[in-house]
Automatic annotation (TrEMBL):
PROSITE patterns: ALDEHYDE_DEHYDR_CYS, ALDEHYDE_DEHYDR_GLU. The keyword Iron-sulfur does not apply. Belongs to the aldehyde dehydrogenase family. This is Aldehyde dehydrogenase domain-containing protein. The active site is at E257. Keywords: Oxidoreductase. InterPro entries: Ald_DH/histidinol_DH, Ald_DH_C, Ald_DH_CS_CYS, Ald_DH_CS_GLU, Ald_DH_N, Aldehyde_DH_dom. GO terms for molecular function: oxidoreductase activity, acting on the aldehyde or oxo group of donors, NAD or NADP as acceptor.
Amino acid sequence: MTSKIKIKYTQLFINNEFIDSESGKKFPVINPATEEEIVQVSEGLKEDIDKAVKAAKEAFARGSEWRNLQPTQRAGLLNKLADLMERDAQQIGHIQTLENGKPFAHSAGETHMAAGVLRYYAGWCDKIHGQTIPTDDGSLVMTRKEPMGVAGQITPWNYPVMLFALKLGPALATGCTLVLKPAEQTPLCNLYIAALTKEAGFPAGVVNVVPGFGPTAGAALAEHPDVAKVAFTGSVAVGKSIMKASGSSNLKRVTLELGGKSPLIIFDDVDVDEAVKLAHDAIFNFSGQICIAAARTYVHSKIYDEFVEKSKKLAVKRILGDPFDPKTEQGPQVEKDMFEKVMGYIKTGDVEGATLVAGGKRHGNCGYFIQPTIFADVTDEMTIAKEEIFGPVQAILKFDKIEDVIERANKTTYGLGAGVLTKDINKALKFAQEIESGTVWVNQYASLMPQTPFGGFKQSGIGRELGAESLDYYLETKTISIKLASV
Ligand code: NAI
Ligand code: MG
């Protein structure tokens, strides 16, 4: 599990330069597969966030360089960044795998998908415009869509490259400038992409990346009076603190993507082998550390026993190990804290009476690996059916009637993703219309495209990323009303 890669960028990226933090402090980035330190990274604190926001504010103010750049030039820069990310996809994938333990093929694939997201937003640059509006008093009224200003972006460690593109794309397409604080677990792949923004030719101050911890650097960004908008992906608790910080500072606009406890409903008319595989992937991909992970598998009673048995066979066959080994299907959990949190939930599942069907233990004795774990006979009241575990733990619940299962699936504070597997179009559409969820997949799971809006109902979030409407969360509408004299 050795790395041949030399890590080039470990400092803060402000005004197109890599610099040390004011305090000179550093923190270690740990490889979760080996528990070894990869490198030390400069730790941004409030004063560094201030510096980065100042750079972004000044870049925004120099209108001709960025905000008022010809839209096609801005598109050109985004496309160029996408080209560079594709050129270096192996390198970026390698760094991500070192930091968060994601199987390498997935990390490299994520970089290509992120480049696709940037190209999608490049396409929007010259298509952002207002309206002309007929009015009762005969004024000529038109609207302009204007960039909000400096965007503060706070991201987690599970999809650091994709989330960088999700945040950077709409901010830059609309003409905002930005300061991104990556997760403390995964600053390195984001610093690498920061270097690519400079190589692509973005003007100084447009993109700034400040690694650091949440309660210090993250909170400073959320509270900053010169930040017009914060886009956050992560936990509900931190999402709420960001809303509060916005309310008590400058009423900055806030968009949040906060995870879920997504249900996958499987009717008795499906091909059971196919459904078992789909449900397996929907929870175990990236060790269950996915906001849309199908963490509640509801299976019709007629196929329940067969489904559980086949799920077990698949789970015990899953290959865990070195994320750089092409045969590996599952790497480690991202860090010790998350490993312990997931092991705690597994214990709770046992104590509360669910039937442990597979896994339940640590895998090996080095790295934060957890066996793919399945609980059957899970009921809605159990903790493992209610709380976001963010680990490789499948809870299989039983149902009989569609009305009941929809009501049960909706009995959650979350509402991010949901899936339904059935050959019956009526059942599928009834479910799709009645489930309280930002996205519903029918006979598939977890497909996300740059064109499709993504976000949550209820406490899964506020606002949408991807798709056309994601741009609105970086734009203000200005109404210009002109009195016309009669001639
Ligand atoms: P977190 O919400 O604490 O961290 C996410 C980001 O927010 C990181 O960049 C972190 O530094 C920053 N942050 C933390 N505290 C902050 C604060 N007070 N102000 C501003 N920024 C702050 O998530 P964490 O600790 O990594 O995971 C905890 C749980 O959150 C997981 O078990 C999972 O349930 C959920 N989660 C959901 C994700 C999603 O995709 N929606 C991604 C990661 C975690
Ligand atoms: Mg946290």
